Amino acid sequence: MLMLWVCATGIMAQSDTIAPKKETVSANYFAVGYTDMLDTYLSPEKFKGAELRFINEKTSIRPGSRWTRQMTTQTLISTGSSRGDGTSMALQANYGYAWHYNWDFMGGRLNVKAGGMIDGAIGVLYNMQNQNNPAQMRLFANIGPSGIADYRFHLWRFPASLRYEVFVPLCGVMFSPNYGQSYYEIFNKGNYDHNIVPTTFICAPSLRNMLTLNVTWGRNTYSIGYLGDIQQASVNNLKQHIYSHLLVIGFVRHFKITDIIPL
Fold it and tell me: Angle 177-48-183 (CA atoms, 0-180°, nearest 5)?
C-alpha cells in the first residue's frame, strides 16, 4: 500500500505543469508643464497655460517570446489664457495599445522595441467667453509606428537606464464640425456635413515622444524626464492644435506571475 501511495503521488505531481512566467511592468507618471491650445472653431486666438497629466503604462512580457504588448492610458487637464484675457480649458482621455518586436544589443544593455500602435482619444475643449458654440468635442483614433529604446547602465552603484519612446500617427479618423456648422445642426437636425473625417500625417501631423532617466532603488524604479506631445489637425477649413511640453516624474514596478496548470 505504501508503494502504491508513493507511485500515485508521483503520478499526480507529474500531472501538474508550471506555466511560463509572465512579467508585467507597470509604470505610473505624473506630468506637469506648458501647453499651447488653438481651435479656430471656437476662437482664432491661441491659449497658453499649464497642463497636468497622469499616465499609466502596462507592458506584458513572456519569456522566450520577442513580442511585447503595451497598454497606455492618459488623462489630462489643461487651462490657458489668450491676449484678450479669454480663458480656455481642455479635458482629454487617451488609450493606446501597441505590439512591439524586441531586439537586444551590446550584450543586453540596449533593448530596442519597434512595432505599431492604435491610439484613440475623447475629450472636450471649452471656451469660457463664448456664448454660442462654447465647446468643441475632441474625438479621434490613429494608427502608426511606435518604438522604444532602453539603454541600461549603472549610476554610481544604482542600476539605471535611459528610455526613449516615440509614436507617430500615420492615418486615422476624427470628428469635426464643418466651418460655420453648429452642434445643433449636427445632433438635433441630423445635418451631416463631412463630420467624420479621414486623417493622414499630411493634414494631421502629430508626434508624441518621452525621454526618461530611470534609477532603481530597492524594489522600485523612479523616473524623471520630458514628455513632448504635439497634436494638430487642419480639416473642414478649421485648424486645431494642442502642444504640450511637460516635466515627467514617476515610478515603475515589476511583477512576475507563475501559473500552475493541472493537465
Answer: 15
